[in-house]
Structures are given as structure tokens and as C-alpha cells.
Amino acid sequence: MKKHKKLIISLIVTMLVIISGGIYIGYQYGPNFDFYLVPPTPKRDAMLAFNKISSTGIYTENQTQKNRMTEIRNDISNKHTYKEIYPLLKQALAIKGGKHSSLITPSEVKKRSFTIQSTN
115 CB contacts (<8 Å, ≥6 apart)? Predict the structure, then answer.
């Protein structure tokens, strides 16, 4: 009976460890694949976007731009709404992507989808 009980406890602990690991991996790396366990807060969403901009931008930065990117990162961490965050992300895009990058806001997406639907 004791062996059976130990086996069940060890299976439960193993399952909890596997599930916890899956949740952690999903939370940490899921956004890279547009997979979210819970909807991201505007701040987390902005930091994910900022990190993507920083890592994939085609332009190298001079020291002034590096300082500005650091300021933008700090400013994002103090903002709480998308309306406050979008201008900061646009600035980061201008530094790292220049004329090759743009940010489309949700209202612009709605306008564009309405325009496409109304032309059909």
C-alpha cells in the first residue's frame, strides 16, 4: 500500500512540474509565436514590441540613438495605455527602421478594413 501511495504522489508531483514548466514556457516564449496564455497588458505588449524592434531593426545606432532607445524603454515602463505607448513605439521604429518601418494602430486597421470592405 505504501509503494502504491508513493507512486501516485510521485506521478502527481511529476505532472505538476511538467504543467508548471509548460505554463512558464507558454508565458515566456508564447508571444514570439502570437500565443498568449492571458491577454497581455499594454505595457507587456509594448515591451514585446520594443524588444522585437530593437532586435530586428535594420539600422545601427549611434550613441545618441542608443540613449534615446534607453529613454523610450524607460518611458514605456511608466505608461499604462496604448494611446500613451504608440508614440514611443513610433519613435523607436523611426530610429531602428527609418522609412522602412511603420506602426499601424487599431483605429487605422479598422479604417483600412472598412475601406477594403466598402470597395468590394
Answer: none
pLDDT of residue 38: 83
Classify residue 78 by its DSSP letter: T
pLDDT digits (tens, 9 = 90+) for 62-77: 888 888 999 999 999 8
The answer to whether 91 and 61 are in contact (CB under 8 A) is no
- Whole-angstrom distance, CA of residue 48 vs CA of residue 27: 12
Distance CA 64, CA 47 (A): 21
Beta strands (DSSP E) in the chain are: none
C-alpha cell at 26: 507558454
